[in-house]
Amino acid sequence: MTDLDALTLLDGLPEPTVAADGQDRIVYANPAAYRLFAWPADELVGQPLDALLPERMRGQHPGFLRDLYLRAQAPTRAQVVRRDGPELDVELALGVAGRLLVVTVHRVREDARVPPDERYRLVFENAPVGLLHFDARGVTTDCNGAMLQILGSSRELVIGLNMTTLQGDPSRDRIATLIRGTLEGRTVRYEGPYKSQTSQKISECAALFAPILGPRGTVMGGVGIIEDVGERKRIEARLSRADRMASIGTLAAGVAHEINNPLVYVTLGLELIERELQRLRLRPQGPSGEDWDRVRNWVAEALEGAERVRSIVRDLRTFSRPGEHQLLPVDVEKVLESSINMAQSHIRPRAQLIRDYQPVAPVLGDESRLGQVFLNLLVNAAQAIPEGAPEKHLIAVRTRAGSGAEVVVEVEDSGVGIEPWKIERIFEPFWTDKPVGVGTGLGLSIVHGIVSALGGEITVQSSPGRGSTFRVTLPGQPEMTAPQVLQEPAAARPSNRRRRVLLIDDEPYLGVTLRTGLREEAEVVSVREGKEALRILHDDQGFDLILCDLMMPGVTGMDVFEEVSRELPALSKRFVFMTGGAVTERAREFLEKVPEQRLDKPFRLEQVEALLRRGR
At what angle do helices 332-347 and 230-282 cross, to 10 degrees? Predict the structure, then answer.
């Protein structure tokens, strides 16, 4: 047989095959060999046969493959190497065709000591993610140890469970729907909390469910791959909060400016009022109507300034508090206005702000995280515009209804724009084109993560010199349900008697102010310690309203409420908790349990009067 005849014969082999001449130079390789060894087309020919061996073996065993042929009588186990580096364990069949040495890779070597079924079982059981199998009815037939650990359950409880019938919790309802979709032939994904039906354990999970198809495309069941992403979520939350705090640091000087402006005329107004009252007291004739009008005007201006400070503090608190686990309907326009207030010190020197708000549905989310999204976009828009000519530039904020029930928010600027290659990387973590010390490179990455977690999408349109438009699309909620105000039946509180208020707060001036302000409407009893409040409540349960500070030294408002709920449960609905911000985890969790019994500081006298009238 001539070499040409031999090569013609080798062309018909499906297995990866090479042939070498008497000097062990490769003279032929079929397409399967090029694919297996990852060599560019035609470049394998001319290479020494040793090029197929790991580098550690080259030169140490001259003529290794030819010697292997002379010694071996059957396919031989060996190691070969791909051009791009990885080594392969294979079984080689060696022979001759004419004067050529022929090397054929029959198959990747398997460990004959482990039966195939056992091998797959070991992979299944030792996988670092949860794996489960369910049949064509959605009944769980198998799962691994990692899956049981995620569920906090046992194999006896999980095997046999029909996952299309999961119920009793929104997360289980969602999984049941997804499993039904899988059994219809769709691959589906889920990410979020899951409350186990069998153990009630709550885990943060990322899951993929895929159908298993038979020979004719019939769905025979499905497989689930589930990962516990709780730690990842906690890290993401810490990064998100760190980014928010960094943003507040960036905005601190501007926020201080916004607070100091109204504080100037608050303090000056109060000083004027004090001087005017002193002047009127010393004047022989009594004050005229004009005198009182002048004082009232100064009081009104001071109140207006204080209200502006209160609004800024409220925006700061909304933006900086940790994200809550509970998603609620959120008014997008309200959150946008808070974000605009926070970003004004960046916007005002650079551009005119245009608002174009169309009516939109609420979105299901968290105010602080949505505020973080909008604030990042507003600050980025401002930083894309040079300072000094605000009349020549604009930043437009728009809301509109999208397709279906979607809500679309757009932030457009007339700044420098973004180059196309940067747009491809703009949402990557830690990537930034800002100078060192300006930005963390996390802002837009976190924005993207927040929007995605809410089931939304963020896109950008931009070109150099023409500005940018960031578009956030979120699923809307048809109606925003107002929280129900807790109150006792009107019959329990007759309206023909003087109301009684117990104030529990360690700030003495608050007691004086409320006692004076409510003197015509209610009797106010003021105490400064939780222990004293408990003593009074055990002796006297006749208070219509109990205003309790959340954070006090010693016995806190939470401690007072817990004891009252145990021993005097009828009083628990009369509590309203005053808070300047929940700074501890316990306080945050407590306020989540009593959302309708909360009064944020600073508050107005009319808000307390409304609470008193509530029970009539």
Answer: 70
Name residues whose C-beta falls within 8 Å of residue 455's C-beta, 6 or more positions apart in sequence: 474, 475
Are the C-beta atoms of 49 and 77 separated by less than 8 Å?
no
How high is the pLDDT of residue 486? Answer: 39
- Higher-pLDDT residue of 440, 406: 406
State in words which class domain 490-614 has. Answer: alpha beta
Six token digits for residue 453: 């977690």
Give CA–CA dist 582/579, Å, rounded.
7
**Is residue 503 pLDDT above 80, yes or no?**
yes
**pLDDT digits over 361-404, tens only?**
999 888 878 887 898 899 889 989 988 889 999 999 999 998 88
pLDDT of residue 8: 66
Check residues 73 and 405 and name the one with the higher pLDDT. Answer: 405
Are residues 415 and 381 in contact, defined by beta-carbon separation less than 8 angstroms? Answer: yes
What pLDDT is recorded for position 490? 39
Average pLDDT over residues 51-64: 77
Cα 526 from Cα 55, distance rounded (Å): 85
Domain 3-108 has CATH 3.40.50.1820: no
For domain 116-228, give the CATH number: 3.30.450.20
Element containing residue 81 per DSSP (H, E): strand 76-81
Closest CA to 439 of 238, 243, 235: 243
Element (H, E) at 149: helix 145-151
Tell me whether domains 3-108 and 116-228 share a fold: yes
Tokens 């006297």 — which residue? 540
Burial (0-12, 13-18, 19+ Cβ within 10 Å), 160: exposed
- Token pair, residue 477, equals 């909620």
Q: Domain residues of the chain, as ranges?
A: 3-108, 116-228, 234-475, 490-614
- The fraction of the chain above a pLDDT of 70, given in percent, is 82
Strands of the sheet with 17-20, listed across from one edge: 26-29, 17-20, 100-108, 87-97, 76-81
Furthest-apart CA atoms within the chain: distance in Å: 136
Buried b (16+ CB within 10 A) or exposed e, 525-544: bbbbbbeebbebbeeeeebb
What is the average pLDDT across 441-460? 79
- The CATH fold assigned to 234-475 is Heat Shock Protein 90 (3.30.565)
Residue 503 CB contacts under 8 Å (≥ 6 apart), including other chains: 510, 511, 514, 524, 525, 526, 527, 547
pTM above 0.90, yes or no: no
Query: What is the DSSP code string of 548-566?
Result: EES--SSS-HHHHHHHHHH
DSSP annotation of 160 reads T
Of 362, 367, 355, the C-alpha closest to 450 is 367
For the record, the structure tokens of 436 come out as: 């060192």
pLDDT tier at 74, thresholds 50, 70, 90: low
Nearest to 237 by CA among 321, 150, 349, 316: 321
